[in-house]
Amino acid sequence: MTATAAAPIPAILLELQRTLQSVDELQINKLAEHIIGAGTVFVAGAGRSGLMMRAFAMRLMHLGIRAYVVGETVTPGIAAGDLLLIGSGSGETKGLVSMASKAQSLQATVAAITVVPESTIGSLAAALIHVPAATKEAGTTAASIQPMGSLFEQSMLLVLDAVVLRLMERTGLRADAMFGNHANLE
After folding, report:
1. What positions does the domain SIS occupy (predicted)?
2. What DSSP character marks residue 16?
């Protein structure tokens, strides 16, 4: 039995620590600024990355920021002054590339969280957070003991929580005040 198999949680935590220490704090701050300046924030991602983006949209709602998940039936159209934030490890997912191009053509701002800053989505982004993690695609720069894009998806969730902390700091909103926007029909 390998050390990783015997103690997977410490191994995962080491991977997360190594990855997150490489994320540029200035990129987190820039994304927070774009969110504060946006009329409405739209989030998108495919698969598990999409789930992380949905979690972030919920936190934005808790902060009182108008946020929507692209593809939901209640999501309105994007317009000039809005922000589309895409989470994509490769930055090349065809549907997300198309979305970014469409948003840009409507004068909305595009932002991205990706492993590959020079990707198509990365090159369309006015704000970008580079997460140097492994993705499900072969040949990415970081190795991981975890399957496919797990390290990227976990890192993205934590990076987005760091963005939430920046937003709380900038707006002066405390966690207890956010609870007033929490779902209450459950």
Report:
1. 31-173
2. H
pLDDT reading at 1 higher than 50: no
Domain boundaries, given as residue ranges, for the chain: 14-170
pLDDT (0 to 100) of residue 2: 52
pLDDT over 90 (residue 23): yes
Strands (E), 24-106: 41-45, 67-69, 83-87
Q: What is the DSSP letter of 130?
A: E
pTM above 0.85, yes or no: yes
**33 part of the active site:** no
At residue 143, φ and ψ (nearest 5 deg) are -95, 155
Q: Counting Cβ atoms within 10 Å, is residue 157 exposed (0-12), middle (13-18) or buried (19+)?
A: middle
Give the pLDDT of residue 83. 98
Given 33, 72, 153, 169, the catalytic residue: 153
d(CA 95, CA 171) in angstroms, rounded, equals 33
Question: What's the confidence (pLDDT) of residue 11?
Answer: 84
- CATH assignment of 14-170, among 3.40.1490.10, 3.40.630.10, 3.40.50.10490, 3.20.20.330: 3.40.50.10490
Q: Which two tokens stand for residue 24?
A: 């540029």
